[in-house]
Amino acid sequence: MKIRRKSDIQSSEITPEPIFRGRRKWIAAAAAVGAASAIPIARLFDDAPAVHAAARLGPLKTSRFSTSEPRTTYEAVTMYNNFYEFGFEKDEPARNAHTLRTRPWTITIDGEVKKQRTFDIDQLLKLAPLEERVYRLRCVEAWSMVVPWIGYPLSALIKQTEPTGNAKFVQFTTLHDPQQMPGQRVPLLDWPYVEGLRLDEAMHPLTLLTLGLYGEVLPNQNGAPVRVVVPWKYGFKSPKSIVRIRLTEKQPKTTWNQTAPTEYGFYSNVNPTLDHPWSQAKERRIGEFLKRQTLMFNGYADEVGALYAGMNLKKFF
Ligand SMILES: Nc1nc2c(c(=O)[nH]1)N[C@H]1C(S)=C(S)[C@@H](COP(=O)(O)O)O[C@H]1N2
Ligand SMILES: [Mo]
Fold it and tell me: Where do the structural domains in the chain lie, given as residue ranges?
């Protein structure tokens, strides 16, 4: 077991103004809940040190979809997170997510399917060959990382359920348990966190059902034991700690779209020409000094551009 050192990242330089606005709201909400329920605020986000004790996964297939760009350090990938269920600051998930119990864990796939299925985490680990997928992850806060994820296409899981002809969309739901997830005791977001994709986006070979990173099972703060990673969309479209996947006929509700509909559309494809409302033209790769130009679809345009042929991406943002 190894204690990891905290990475040297200035959150102030990459946190956009709307997030600061949000943070003030969060602090006010936390204070209100603390007063109402008599949970001392200090106990909402306690202070356990981050330890690294994850089990190895393998064997791993390589993937033609992996980028050869330098990988962001393990330290940064696991200590600089967005996971509001465990706090609002980037270092809070690493400190607080130890309260999440990742076993036993099941994920249910229902809705517009011929065969509703429930899988536990050991079944998921064996459902398809595990691959290493080194993807860029671009947050709408204008930072990015390169992460060696482990998983297999989400399509392999969805196919098990035989979608009906009515299935057009997929909704993902994160665990809802304020006992394990202290952030859910604070009503900043309408918990549980929900996200959604169009069915063809969910079935695209780049969309990864993700069970690990850097050769190991997922650390809790990265969405253990199972999350989705959608590399051509902003990071918030990659929901963590999923318990339910529902196929629907109508476009499902998604947390950030409901919270701030003018800033976060349903599609949320990485698009450097559209502001959110702050500019998305550039990004800071964590660990690098100079900003980079952000690429259309986060650099995955060759793979996913056809999904949006003929669509007005300014309207469907
Ligand atoms: N349930 C849940 N999933 C979530 C989030 C969250 O707060 N809750 N944050 C999203 C955002 S904004 C980003 S950028 C990515 C971050 O993933 P990482 O911490 O593994 O890099 O997770 C996404 N998935
Ligand atoms: Mo994000």
Answer: 6-308
